[in-house]
Amino acid sequence: MLRGAQHVCDVAVLYPIAGIWANFHPTSLSMYQSHPSGRAREIDDRFLELCRLLLRNRIDFDIVDERAIREAAVEEGRFRIADESYRVLVVPDTDAVHLSTLRRMSEMKDRGVLIAAVGGSPSSPRPETRAMRR
């Protein structure tokens, strides 16, 4: 029944890993213990809450990273990543986003893509570094 079907999703959600990195520091704790950075936990918790809210409201979404956003093609008020096309980019509460990603999101907005920030906007645009380009 689903053979030949194509996944259609209008909403992409930014994975806030740069905000986690900005608040993370190595510890000797087990991976099963909470990280001592309250802000890192808060970013993670709010991201999960956002995803759950979208699901509860039957809004289909894909999670995308900053690299995918920077490399996305933009046309007719939508941005394309691989075979998927989105009309909306949701930016969750986070402390940091790479400056090049913020610039790209601004270009996308100017070309008709809806950018929806949930919570606070990134307060610490992170410059590109070799370690963060992975």
Write a concise synopsis of the structure shown:
With 134 residues, this protein is an alpha/beta fold.
Structural topology:
Elements: E1 11-14, H1 17-23, H2 38-56, E2 61-64, H3 66-71, E3 73-75, E4 78-81, E5 84-86, E6 88-91, H4 99-110, E7 114-117
Parallel strand pairs: 1-2, 1-6, 6-7
Antiparallel strand pairs: 3-4, 4-5
Helix pairs in contact: 1-2
Question: How does this structure look, described?
Answer:
With 134 residues, this protein is of the alpha/beta class. It has one domain (11-23, 33-133): Rossmann fold, CATH 3.40.50. The chain has four helices and seven strands; from the N terminus they run βααβαββββαβ. The protein has helices at 17-23, 38-56, 66-71, 99-110, and strands at 11-14, 61-64, 73-75, 78-81, 84-86, 88-91, 114-117. The strands form two sheets. It has a four-stranded parallel sheet, sandwiched between helices. Strands 3-4-5 form a three-stranded antiparallel sheet. β3 and β4 form a beta hairpin. The chain is globular, with a radius of gyration of 16 Å. Residues 124-134 have low confidence and may be disordered.
